Every structure is written in structure tokens, then in C-alpha cells.
Amino acid sequence: MSRNQPANDIFELYDLRVEVICPPGERILCGAKAGDHFTLEGEMLHLPPGQGFSIYSLDAVLPLLAAKQRETHLNDWMSTDADVACPEPHCKSLLRITRTEKRSFSHGAVTVVPLQAVGGSVHGTEQLVERKDKLHG
Ligand SMILES: [Zn+2]
Description:
The chain is α+β, with helices and mostly antiparallel strands. The protein has helices at 55-68, 77-80, 107-110, 123-136, and strands at 10-21, 37-41, 44-46, 83-85, 94-106. Strand 4 and strand 5 (94-106) form a beta hairpin. The longest helix has 14 residues, at 55-68. Bound molecules: zinc ion.
């Protein structure tokens, strides 16, 4: 922990499981089998040994994963909706995103940008402006 980090800089993210749902009797065109899945812990994606995952299917869920990892408002559709259509238009498989458990992370372990100081000064913003000035002037 850097000397500028407060003692408690912990935040939590949900671990996610993304599982392929294959309706019985439907032809699957994206190379998936029912139950194929990956898990996401922080920024790390894990596949079971020997199992693949379509890059097109991954592309369909990727924009949603960072939001799904975070606590969202109960009325937000991001809180309720979990199924994403396979991007292959003739494939009936779904990709189901499930929040599993929460995992704790230290702000100081994942970024060099300091936390916002209590009382109004935004050190992170100042640092960005300072870096921008160095780049442009
Ligand atoms: Zn599919």
C-alpha cells in the first residue's frame, strides 16, 4: 500500500459466471454445448480446462460484465436482466450472466490514481490535468 492510500481502501465486485443455455432440440451454431461457461474474478476470466468459448459470444457479453460486477440499483435493468442472445442470428443459445459471490479488492493494488480526498479536493483529477499539461505544453 502506498503512503498516500488510506488504511481502508477496500471495494467489492461480484464474481460472475457466464453460462451457455441451449434450448433442447435447437441447433447450436456457435460451437457451444449446454453448460459451457467461464467465470470472471475481478478482471481475470477463467475457462474450465479443455473448454473453449466463441469469441463472438464473448463479444456479446463483454460490454455488460463490468457493470454486472458492480452493485446496481434494484430498479435498474442491469440488476434484473441476465440473458444475452447469441450473436449468431440463427442460433438459439443464450448466454446467462450470474452474480455469484462478492470479492474484495484494494484500490491501491489495482491503480496508481489516488483516492478522492475527503473534503472536496479530487487528487485523481488534478493528477490527470497535470499529466495532460505535460503532454501538451
Ligand atoms: Zn449460439
